[in-house]
Design brief:
Number of domains: 2
Structural class: alpha+beta
Shape: globular
Largest sheet: 7 strands, antiparallel
CATH class of the largest domain: Alpha Beta
CATH superfamily of the largest domain: PPM-type phosphatase domain
Distance between the termini: 29 Å
Helix content: 25-40%
Radius of gyration: 25 Å
Number of helices: 12
Strand content: 15-25%
CATH architecture of the largest domain: 4-Layer Sandwich
Number of strands: 21
Length: 502
């Protein structure tokens, strides 16, 4: 196997040998990166952890990946420029035969450019997908970059160990009999030095008494470091539950839930800022929370709360229609600009991006900062909240009634995804092959993230996909669906795949 395609995790290869009509299977533990075989998993793991050869091969693989990635990006940029400047009509030749010949030549050249672009994008996506898989095999999602900040997040280690950032699909039943939802996620470091995005597929929300059970998911897009996003992973769910438990049950559940989520955003932010102030940590994060439940009339309800520019989109029918559920909190949004300026903040456009600044010079720890942020609402971000608060920590909270007959999926994603893709393009990537089939939600999330990378997004990339499972679809049928390939396929293979149920 070529080094560029190797994934330095254990590979269990099975050799089938027929002896006297019986099949004997021998498992081999192999590091394909170093081309070494080991007696058992323990020796393979030790090789990965301490071997100088393995470390050197990893460094070589990283350099090869980086070089190839830069080469493909240049090809994509150059080919796109050529297509943008490609002539749309003939400038010479009066004879019909000459026009036909020249036109055919132009069409062939354009088709070749389009093919080159598609191949380069697919190769770039495939290369990065393998790279991200290798990163996941060798590191955990939650890395302690903020020192003792994480000492205050007691749940963090337990959350990491129980797979809070595992994007594998989860089937959830909302009530009894209730609706079913199918969840999955994908996150990539992309072109950033580190992945500061986080997601949670189960906020472990608890509802009191006779209130309906709920299920919550979230996306947090960290910036200036991952400490705030990690803190939100550990605490925002429990804070929502605590706030809800303290409410008077005489108030309708929907109103109590809205108030509790709003209160929990502010409470979690205040708690983190107290720690950040003591530790000198400038980290911040956007927050996008979606909570679903069925009411007493068995109607499917969904609460969406967000602060920042992570976005939620509702996909309808076959993926050809969608509805944006959140409006990005950008500094150039008129109502957001007015709020920032009313607090003494400054809104300036720098290199095409609108940012919020505080007029004072900010000191965080031993650093003197002039802080500018590309969103008008966030959690954390101490430099823009002390001593002067010019960034809003209050979420926008909305409740939607969903119709399972037409509402098929909800996509939550960080801004790195939507910076380069329209809502409609993201929705189209979830389109099922037939009305009563579903593509695995983690595979859908991978398609969304990978396509954003192919379109040259320079940010971290995270997507969570929630499928609303049709009542007529059997639970076992959903659980056994296989993850489809993400590489560009030939027309023949696509046609073959469309004839079978995913």
């Amino acid at each position: 196997m070529p080094a560029a395609e190797a994934t330095p995790v254990e590979r269990v290869a099975t050799d089938a040998k027929s002896t006297g009509g019986e099949t004997a299977k021998a498992a081999r533990m192999v590091c394909y990166l170093c081309r070494r075989r080991f007696a058992d998993l323990e020796h393979l793991r030790r090789h990965e952890e301490v071997s100088d050869l393995h470390r050197a091969n990893l460094e070589k693989l990283d350099q090869e990946t980086l070089s190839r990635r830069l080469e493909l990006r240049q090809t994509i940029i150059g080919t796109r420029a050529a297509l943008e400047n490609f002539p749309t009509s003939l400038n010479h030749g009066d004879a019909a035969t000459e026009e036909t010949t020249e036109g055919s030549s132009l069409a062939a050249r354009r088709q070749k450019l389009e093919w080159t672009l598609q191949q380069a994008e697919a190769a770039l996506g495939s290369l990065q997908e393998k790279f991200e898989e290798r990163l996941r095999s060798s590191t955990t999602t939650h890395v302690d970059h903020a020192g003792s900040v994480h000492a205050h997040a007691e749940q963090l280690k337990a959350l990491s160990e129980t797979g809070v950032s595992d994007g594998a699909p989860k089937l959830i039943r909302l009530g009894d009999p209730g609706m079913k939802i199918w969840l999955g996620a994908e996150t990539w470091k992309g072109n950033k030095r580190a992945n500061e995005d986080r997601f949670v597929l189960d906020l472990s929300l608890v509802t009191p008494g006779t209130d309906p059970p709920v299920h919550g998911v979230a996306v947090f897009d960290g910036h200036s470091g991952p400490a705030c996003a990690d803190y939100l992973v550990a605490h925002i769910g429990e804070n929502i539950s605590h706030c809800l438990a303290a409410k008077d049950t005489a108030t309708p559940f929907e109103q109590r839930l809205q108030d509790s989520v709003h209160q929990a955003f502010v409470l979690t932010d205040d708690d983190f800022l107290a720690i950040a102030s003591a530790e000198g940590v400038p980290d911040g994060s956007t927050a996008l929370v979606v909570i679903m439940w069925t009411d007493s009339a068995e109607r499917l309800k969904m609460l969406v709360a967000h602060a920042g520019d992570s976005r939620a989109v509702l996909v309808k029918g076959d993926g050809t229609k969608c509805v944006r559920l959140t409006e990005d909190h950008k500094p150039n949004r008129e109502d957001e600009r007015r709020w920032v300026q009313s607090k003494g903040g400054i809104v300036i456009e720098i290199n095409g991006t609108w940012r919020v600044f505080t007029p004072e010079t900010v000191v965080v720890g031993d650093k003197v900062l002039q802080w500018g942020l590309a969103v008008s609402r966030s959690l954390g971000d101490l430099p823009l909240k002390a001593p002067r608060t010019v960034i809003n920590n209050h979420p926008e909270v909305k409740v939607y009634d969903l119709d399972p007959a037409v509402d098929r999926s909800v996509v939550l994603a960080s801004d790195g995804v939507f910076d380069v893709q329209s809502d409609n393009l993201v929705a189209s990537l979830l389109a099922p092959p037939s009305p009563l089939t579903l593509i695995r939600p983690d595979a859908c999330a991978l398609r969304v993230v990978r396509r954003a990378y192919e379109l040259l997004s320079d940010d971290n990339l995270t997507a969570v996909v929630i499928h609303i499972v049709p009542q007529e679809m059997d639970t076992e049928e959903v659980n056994t669906r296989k993850r489809p390939p993400t590489d560009r396929e030939s027309i023949a293979s696509k046609a073959k795949r469309s004839r079978r149920t995913l």
